[in-house]
Amino acid sequence: MPDPMYRQIAEQLREEIESDRFDADKPLPTESQLQVSHKVSRNTIRQAIDLLDGWGLVEKRPGSGTFIRKQYEPFVTTLSEWQKKSGSEDKPGSEDESDSGLGGGEGAAAFNEVKARGRMGKFLSPRVEIQLASKNVSERLRVPPGTNVISRHQQRFIDGQPWSLQTSYYPMDLSDRGATQLLLAGDIKEGAVKYLGDVLQLKQVGYRDRIAVRRANETELRFFGLREDANIPVFILLRTAYGVDGASTEPFPFRFTESVFPSDRNQFVINVGNVPDGLAEPAKI
Predict the structure, then answer these.
(1) Is 268:250 a contact under the CB 8 Å cutoff?
(2) Kind of pairing, strands 148-158 and 234-245?
(3) Which of 93, 102, 203, 206 has the highest count of CB atoms within 10 angstroms of its CB?
(4) Are 94 and 119 in contact (CB under 8 A)?
């Protein structure tokens, strides 16, 4: 059974968009023009445009028309821990940051995978605050709601484009025990995990990721340059890191990180078991 006409038209328009037939700076042909050229009803054209919108290829701008949506080369973040292979100089390993880069690392250490992929990473100096733990933070760090926690918020870029936002939360007692650099608005160059290991002998032994999807809020729309009517959701990666130290062999949460990634420029990979060497390439979706 053939596809419905609107889907056939959408597929044809997709091919024309991907072959650069249309000027990305100008609106696509109007519904009336497409209706005439395809000899179908206006409702069929609207269904085709809605499908293109759902595929993330176009965006409707009220009063201006339908435009090709800016396409990014997706960056693939490896969420599972990955080690530097013997003889390899281009892969980060756990000696730099014992969780994977953009998935939960902070500062320069978080961009090892970006560098390995031949792309340029940049981050702004973190905004450091002492906050009262929200319900979500208190549950992840196992502290009472309203307890003081350290938050470190960073804006992160790849190839000059806004790529992700990250906020990491730490219990105040880590600073009280000597990890005072957590309170400074500067990069922890070796990575927070290694820093805490050096200063407090706190060793990360694992982490738990939760991934959710929601609409972008006003701050995220502005930072990522998203139109509110473009219907581009954001991924929310919630990572709770667990560690042990000299005083306890039972893993306890010492860092909770919330990272926000717009879905139009990010993909994620989780490796399990014996998989081929090398970095996973973006999937064509």
Answers:
(1) no
(2) unpaired
(3) 102
(4) no
Per-residue pLDDT of 94-144, as tens digits, reads 434 455 578 888 878 788 889 999 999 999 999 999 999 999 999 999 999
| CATH class of the 5-68 domain in this structure | mainly alpha
* Helix, strand, coil percent values for the chain (each to nearest 5): 30, 30, 40
**C-alpha–C-alpha distance, residues 104 and 192, integer Å:** 10
Structure tokens at 157: 């870029």
Which residues of the chain are in CATH 3.40.1410.10 domains? 75-269
Nearest to 245 by CA among 194, 206, 205, 203: 203
Model confidence at 92, in pLDDT bands (50, 70, 90)? very low
Q: Confirm if 262 and 234 have CB atoms less than 8 A apart.
A: yes
CATH: 1.10.10.10, 3.40.50.460, 3.40.50.150, 3.40.1410.10. Which one for 75-269? 3.40.1410.10
How many Å apart are CA 256 and CA 140, to the nearest integer? 6
